[in-house]
Design goal:
single chain, 10 helices, ten-stranded mixed beta sheet, five-stranded antiparallel beta sheet
Length: about 375
């Protein structure tokens, strides 16, 4: 186990718990005690830091005397810590403690529940679950990466926690431990697997972040009843790294593909628009747009031209917004789907509903896997995902 100065580590851990409590992320004495009892530094002996925000990572290692203090202070700060990267993308991390706390509080744990965690990662969240539930026997965790699972097992075992860990694709759930009263995903998936619904006890809860190329942080709490799962999105942003089964394509690569595509519509159709990229900065509309528009965004500053904001679809659809010579906003779009029209339609619908907050939207997943997004209640305005 990593050696640290006990008084310093204890003080930093207490300070983190105090911050999470003061900010309202920690409320239940069960989880306050769990965060106080479980040392995060054991699970993150090394992380990668992008100091310049240019996808250039440098390691910060507990074993390096010159880095030890920074390592420990960052471990006990309220920030996510990247632990593994693959090319341009980070693929594993220790999640932001405040988000972990919010999600654990959201699970409405009483102590009797059987919990399945999708995405073992470093093992820190599994340890919090074991501590919060007061037992290892009710905690199950799966991850597709065998190396991560074994590293997490070692960290957990060193602290005396022995939940059931397994290496498999989290989309399959973990049938051997079913039924579960709670399923919590600390990775992002494009859809809620029907296998999870089948493995959740009647009345049980599923907490999951829906992956969208546009982001949005849509975190849904679904209750399983009568073979389907339904519930509202959380009022807070809950974004996670997608499962490694999702192909992540850099925006620059998509843009290059679109620009070289020998398509009759490659020049696109231009028209005036009232929308700008700034509207996506709204916390709720950013989520609504991500759920409605299947694209990622990219900002460009062409030499000698106004800034451009691009939407890029995996199917070859594209759109960008810029300004004309008179300073007016224009949109140009092409490809199979008119992405800018979709974005404007999503904004118009959101505005017509009175610009509702995140938690006023919900999701229903049927036993057959159909995903329906709705406003207010399942019987309210809705669209298929």
């Amino acid at each position: 186990m990593i050696e640290v100065e006990e008084d310093q580590e204890r003080d930093l851990r207490r300070a983190l718990v105090a911050k999470l409590t003061e900010d309202g992320s920690l409320r239940d004495p069960r989880w306050i005690a769990a965060f106080q009892a479980v040392p995060r530094h054991v699970f993150v002996p090394r992380f990668l830091l992008d100091r310049t925000h240019t996808n250039t990572y440098e390691p910060v290692d507990a074993t390096d005397p010159a880095q030890h203090r920074e390592w420990l202070e960052r471990v006990y700060s309220d920030e996510p810590l990247v632990t593994r990267v693959d090319g341009m993308f980070s693929v594993s991390s220790s999640s932001q403690p405040s988000l972990m706390a919010d999600m654990l509080e959201t699970l409405q744990i009483t102590g009797a529940e059987r919990v399945l965690e999708i995405g073992t990662g470093t093992g820190y969240n599994s340890a919090l679950l074991c501590e919060g539930l007061g037992t290892d026997d009710q905690v199950f965790s799966v991850d597709i990466d065998a190396d991560l699972v074994e590293a997490a097992r070692g960290h957990l075992d060193g602290l005396g926690y022995r939940p059931t860990l397994a290496t498999l694709d989290g989309a399959e759930g973990y049938p051997d431990g079913a039924p579960y009263d709670r399923i919590i995903a600390t990775c992002s998936l494009p859809r809620v697997p029907v296998e999870w619904i089948a493995q959740t006890a009647e009345g049980g809860l599923i907490l999951v972040n829906l992956y969208r190329d546009l982001g949005g942080g849509a975190l849904a709490l679904l209750r399983v009843e009568d073979g389907q799962a339904s519930g509202h999105f959380m009022p807070y942003f809950g974004g996670f790294m997608p499962t490694c089964t999702i192909e992540r394509i850099p925006g620059s690569e998509l843009l290059a593909t679109h620009r070289t595509h020998e398509d009759a519509d490659r020049d696109g159709v231009e028209r005036a628009t009232a929308m700008s990229e700034d509207l996506l900065k709204d916390d709720t509309f950013g989520m609504v747009a991500a759920l409605r528009v299947d694209a990622q965004r990219l900002g460009l500053l062409p030499e000698g031209e106004p800034e451009q904001f691009w939407l890029l679809g995996r199917d070859g659809s594209w759109a960008y917004q810029t300004t004309d010579k008179g300073g007016g906003l224009i949109a140009v779009q092409g490809g199979p789907i008119e992405l800018w029209d979709q974005l404007e339609a999503a904004y118009d619908d959101w505005t017509a509903l009175g610009r509702p907050a995140r938690e006023e939207y919900g999701l229903t997943v049927t036993a057959g896997g159909e995903h329906i997004i709705w406003h207010g209640a399942p019987s309210g305005p809705s669209w298929r995902f």
